[in-house]
Amino acid sequence: MGERGGLFFDGFGIALGWGAWQGLGVPEVRPMKYLTVIRHAKSSWNQPGLADHDRSLNDRGNRAAPAMAKFLWTTYLGGENSEPLLPRPERLISSTALRALTTAQIMRETFQMPKEHLHLDQGLYLATEEKLISTVRGFDESWGHAVVFGHNPGMHDFVNRLLARARVPKFPTCAVAIMALPNEFWALTDWNEAQLVGFLTPKTLERRFPDVYRDISDGDDD
């Protein structure tokens, strides 16, 4: 197990924040917030004239979102009696667009969270990175881990500007970036300081676990 930038990394390159966790006997040396950013799953273009805001998930999106949710739940969040690598999120915050909301609802159900813990924010629809950081800075300080659902290009730009070192070359549909923010308060969130805890896409799950996750990506990282 190695240490880089205030995070411990296991042999698979998965970051385990300081003290995350009690099962590892690692002492917590500083408070931090965890922010997970998820782009909506693949949506349909098969209804001409339908407003962009109202586009639903297509078949692939409806397969990918539950697959990504299950992987996060069982690998990172302690679901199905697994050892948690991260604290479970207190809130999910989603764009009001149907494709983002549907993705968020699938995640909420998988994470076994109450309906009232999913918040809708109209300002997240096609939000820029500046709007996204402003939203995060306004989060309730009692939350230790929050998940945001939204759209490109703002989500991709937001993740890359937050990260201190790593960069994410693409942010395809249903991509997930898990970040640790080295602050006790959301209000102090700033650019170039986050550590990348994990980055997942449907294509990476298909390639790594082909017997478990199938037909969730076209292999094009769209």
Architecture overview:
With 222 residues, this protein is α/β, with parallel strands linked by helices. It has one domain (32-208): Phosphoglycerate mutase-like (Rossmann fold, 3-Layer(aba) Sandwich), CATH 3.40.50.1240. It is built from five helices and nine strands. The protein has helices at 59-75, 98-110, 129-137, 154-162, 202-208, and strands spanning 2-4, 7-9, 15-17, 33-39, 91-94, 118-120, 145-150, 176-181, 195-200. The strands form two sheets. The chain has a six-stranded mixed beta sheet, with helices on both faces. The chain has a three-stranded antiparallel beta sheet with strand order 1-2-3, with no helix packed on it. A hairpin with a 5-residue loop joins strand 2 and strand 3 (15-17). Helix 1 packs parallel to helix 2 and helix 3 (129-137) packs across helix 4 (154-162). The longest helix has 17 residues, at 59-75. The protein is globular, with a radius of gyration of 17 Å. The termini are far apart. Residues 1-29 have low confidence and may be disordered.
